[in-house]
């Protein structure tokens, strides 16, 4: 059965979309833009203050190619500009097309869409935006009162053009089964199902010595667990179960970080494991190695000794580590003395 809401949107926008100017037709058939499909596209927005789209009068507002940051949207996930989503659903891969709209049709949407895109493209410039009411508002009137934080967008609102001309180019279409789905797009069941999948993929990548890729999988699984924990009351059984499920992921991640020489990250993540399980031998051993690598000698020695106490079968190996640690300290002391001697004499 057709969704009446979708039908209304199509009836509203299709006459406008049929007016688009196709500059490059693209390849193949129009893809199946089912809900959850990820579309990556470049866009350009120009403003015109004249009665027609005279190229000489056009003022560029945004150009994702200049920013080297294409925009992404997930079909059916309430994109800020519904017309763009409907327009994209009519486009082929590689298609480049243009559409001009009267300012009144996009004045309540485009300035805030542009602001969100700019925050995505250059996030370091907008650390204050989470407290900015203009970011939360969907009303141009509110944006007019508070400002967008961008001079040119504020000028666009306060001195509106006749029309905006949009140019969109589809560069990638990924169906829902192929998308590395963003966590915020997952429902609770999908989150729960993805954790063991990500852990297994991480283990396979680790076995193939692809430590950076394995780290990504473990980090994403941990982020999902963190998100699930926010839905539970701290201390409740489900919350505790999610918290304990983090241990093998943190442990595996710390091992990747040792191979990648990210020693301080390894220390931080093994700390997290040991806060939950103070007798975790793997975490103690990995933290000892990380401390040793960054010359936290006493912390390394303490962790090595604790491993030896917890598992006596590991004592010969730990003894070798401690001997090597002492040798490293002696070599470092001698090097420092030679360096100091050179400066004094």
Automatic annotation (TrEMBL):
Cited Pfam families: PPIase_AIP (PF23322)
Chain segments annotated as coiled-coil in the UniProt record: none
SMART domains noted in UniProt: TPR (SM00028)
Record localization: Cytoplasm
Higher taxonomy: Eukaryota, Metazoa, Ecdysozoa, Arthropoda, Chelicerata
Protein name: Aryl-hydrocarbon-interacting protein-like 1
UniProt keyword list: Cytoplasm, Repeat, TPR repeat
Domain AIP/AIPL N-terminal FKBP-type PPIase: 32-171
Keyword Repeat annotated: yes
């Amino acid at each position: 059965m057709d969704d009446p809401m979708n039908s209304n949107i199509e009836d509203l926008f299709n006459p406008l979309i049929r007016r688009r100017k196709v500059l490059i037709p693209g390849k193949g058939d129009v893809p199946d833009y089912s809900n959850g499909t990820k579309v990556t596209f470049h866009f350009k927005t120009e403003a015109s203050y004249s009665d027609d789209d005279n190229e000489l009068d056009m003022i560029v507002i945004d150009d994702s190619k200049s920013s080297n940051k294409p925009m992404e949207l997930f079909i059916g996930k309430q994109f800020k500009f519904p017309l763009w989503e409907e327009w994209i659903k009519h486009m082929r891969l590689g298609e480049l097309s243009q559409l001009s709209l009267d300012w009144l049709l996009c004045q309540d949407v485009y300035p805030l869409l542009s602001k969100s895109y700019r925050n995505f493209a250059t996030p370091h410039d907008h650390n204050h935006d989470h407290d900015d009411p203009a970011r939360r508002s969907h009303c141009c009137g509110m944006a007019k009162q508070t400002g967008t934080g961008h001079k040119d967008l504020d000028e666009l609102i306060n001195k509106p053009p006749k029309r905006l001309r949009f140019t969109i180019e589809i560069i990638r279409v990924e169906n829902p089964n192929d998308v590395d789905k963003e966590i915020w797009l997952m429902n609770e069941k999908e989150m729960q199902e993805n954790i063991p999948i990500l852990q297994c993929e991480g283990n396979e990548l680790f076995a193939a010595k692809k430590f950076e890729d394995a780290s990504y999988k473990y980090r994403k699984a941990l982020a999902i667990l963190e998100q699930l924990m926010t839905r539970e009351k701290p201390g409740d059984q489900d919350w505790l179960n999610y918290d304990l499920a983090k241990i093998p992921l943190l442990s595996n991640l710390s091992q990747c970080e040792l191979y990648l020489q990210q020693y301080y990250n390894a220390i931080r993540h093994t700390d997290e494991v040991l806060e939950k399980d103070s007798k975790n031998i793997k975490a103690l051993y990995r933290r000892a190695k990380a401390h040793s690598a960054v010359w936290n000698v006493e912390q390394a020695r303490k962790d090595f000794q604790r491993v030896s106490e917890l598992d006596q079968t590991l004592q010969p190996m730990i003894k070798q580590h401690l001997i090597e640690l002492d040798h490293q300290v002696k070599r470092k002391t001698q090097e420092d003395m030679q360096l100091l001697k050179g400066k004094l004499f």
